[in-house]
Automatic annotation (TrEMBL):
This is Helix-turn-helix. It comes from the Bacteria. GO terms for molecular function: DNA binding. Pfam families: HTH_3 (PF01381).
Length: 147
């Protein structure tokens, strides 16, 4: 019985596959790996829609086919530069950045109700600054000059 136990312990101790380290890495990097996988799936879908192969994408990006292979496996930590180049070549948006918005709390002092009681109210106001930095169009310019 002890011979069997020794053999089991030897086999159990001889873990050369590195699966534990891989699992720890995946757990520690779960969030960006998930996003990388989502991007990889989107790239594969677009390649299929456009009838392109990975080697065509590699040539368009001036990278090796091995690099594209790593990207479409979803295990590559992509830089913004790489994502931008992929978006340009594929003609799609892979990562979106929402418009800048902020929420402000405005504290009103006292508000009289129709019953004559006074209340303090807190009001949430959402402000969208998306158009603040917009360049004026020709129609805006002409309108201003006409006035």
């Amino acid at each position: 019985m002890t011979d069997i136990r020794k053999k089991i312990e030897e086999i159990a101790i001889d873990d050369t596959s590195g699966w534990k380290e891989d699992a720890k890495y995946r757990r520690a990097n779960r969030k960006w790996l998930r996003k990388s996988q989502d991007i990889a799936l989107r790239i594969l879908d677009v390649l299929e829609e456009k009838g392109m192969q990975q080697k065509d994408l590699a040539e368009a990006l001036d990278v090796s086919p091995q690099q594209i292979s790593k990207i479409v496996k979803g295990k590559q930590n992509l830089t913004l530069e790489t994502i931008s180049k992929l978006e340009q070549v594929l003609g799609v948006e892979l990562v979106g950045v929402p418009k800048y918005q902020t929420k402000m709390d405005v504290d009103k002092k006292e508000v009289k109700t129709s019953f004559g009681k006074q209340k303090r109210q807190r009001v949430a106001v959402q402000v969208d600054f998306g158009d603040v930095f917009k360049q004026p169009s020709d129609s805006d310019y002409n309108y201003r000059n006409a006035a």
